[in-house]
Amino acid sequence: MKAAVVVFPGSNCDRDLAVAFRAAGAEVEMVWHKDTELPQGVDIVGVPGGFSFGDYLRCGAIAANSPICKAVKGHADKGGYVFGVCNGFQVLTETGILPGALLRNAGLKYICKTVGLRVETSQSAFTEGYNAGDVVDIPIAHHDGNYFADDSTLDALEGDDRVAFRYTDNPNGSQRDIAGILSENRRVLGMMPHPERAADAGHGGTDGQALFRAVVGQLTSA
Amino acid sequence: MKATVHVMLKNGVLDPQGEAVRHALGALGFDGVNGVRQGKVIELDLADGTSEDDVTAMCEKLLANTVIESYRVEMG
């Protein structure tokens, strides 16, 4: 099972994401933002956290228009798996792969702490290692994590069981406490919290491990 | 030739920065500021012959995120 992790100038969670994928059993290849193609045989693309292009213009906006993102979009359009974390989630909304947008935190402050997330669905390759209703502790570290979409989009996300995670105590003003969402085909997950920072005992928590094990396990057996 | 693009959060999208500015103005004693919306202005220095349609395409593709933002183009 092969994962590709995209690296933009300003990414800073790319190696953490690669380590978490490897620990779950994936072979990982890093790809540079100027690359125009993903490596042969990639099953899942990881879009990492960080501050791509210094968050200039809007978080993720410039990254979303980079050459590699065309390839990522092509991969998603063909039914490939994509996992965007934090800045990676912002990039996925900017590309239009996932709906909505991430606004400045309602309290205006950059927030870096571990928060409770309620798993809203176990019906995806990413979340099948959890039970719906489980509460997991996962760190957040963002300034622009306030999820926004219009009511009809939010209703559709909820109606189609596409909200993957909600905050138990909304830290950033996100609409309907949304922390992570799935694409229509449930193969793309974007989330602001960082499961790769809770994937090893040395991190102080391992609640994120099940996500990587589930998706790597499913794609390995597929 | 020049073009100026004004980008604002759409009505109905919470603007916490504008709200913070409104509070700060109140704290400074400026009464009667009922609302503040903060946006951005982007100045473009363009090759002659660039059309307004070209600038609109730039807005749609990169300069604004139309999920949350509206934009207005001023040519010249």
What does this structure look like?
The complex is a heterodimer of chains A (222) and B (76). Chain A has helices at 14-23, 61-64, 67-77, 87-95, 151-159, 209-221; strands spanning 2-7, 27-32, 44-47, 81-85, 101-103, 111-119, 135-142, 146-148, 163-167, 178-182, 188-191. By secondary structure, chain A is an alpha/beta fold. Chain A has a single domain (2-221), classed as Class I glutamine amidotransferase (GATase) domain (Rossmann fold, 3-Layer(aba) Sandwich). The longest helix of chain A is centred in the C-terminal third of the chain and has 13 residues, at 209-221. Chain A is globular. Chain B is α+β, with helices and mostly antiparallel strands and 76 residues long. Chain B has one domain: 2-Layer Sandwich (Mth169, Chain: A), CATH 3.30.1280.10. Chain B is built from 2 helices and 3 strands. Chain B has helices at 16-27, 52-63; strands at residues 2-9, 40-45, 69-75. Chain B is elongated, with a radius of gyration of 16 Å. The model of chain B has no long low-confidence stretch (mean pLDDT 96). At the A-B interface, loops of A face helix 1 and helix 2 of B.
Task: Briefly summarize what is shown.
The complex is a heterodimer of chains A (222) and B (76). Chain A has 222 residues and is α/β, with parallel strands linked by helices.
Spatial separation of the terminal alpha carbons of chain B: 6 Å
The shape of chain B, in one word, is elongated
Q: For the largest beta sheet of chain A, what order do the strands appear in spatially?
A: 2-1-3-4-11-10-9-6-7
Distance between the termini of chain A: 9 Å
| Helix/strand order of chain A | EHEEHHEHEEEEHEEEH
CATH fold title of chain B: Mth169, Chain: A
Count of discrete structural domains of chain A: 1
What's the CATH C level of chain A?
Alpha Beta
Helix content of chain B: 25-40%
- The helix/strand class of chain A is alpha/beta
SS elements, strand count of chain B: 3
The average pLDDT value of chain A, as a whole number, equals 97
Give the name of the CATH superfamily of chain A: Class I glutamine amidotransferase (GATase) domain
The number of domains of chain B: 1
DSSP strand content of chain A = 25-35%
The largest interface is: A-B, 20 and 12 residues
Largest sheet of chain A: 9 strands, mixed
CATH-assigned fold name of chain A: Rossmann fold
Supply the number of helical segments of chain B: 2
The biggest sheet of chain B, with number of strands, parallel, antiparallel or mixed sense and barrel status, is: 3 strands, antiparallel
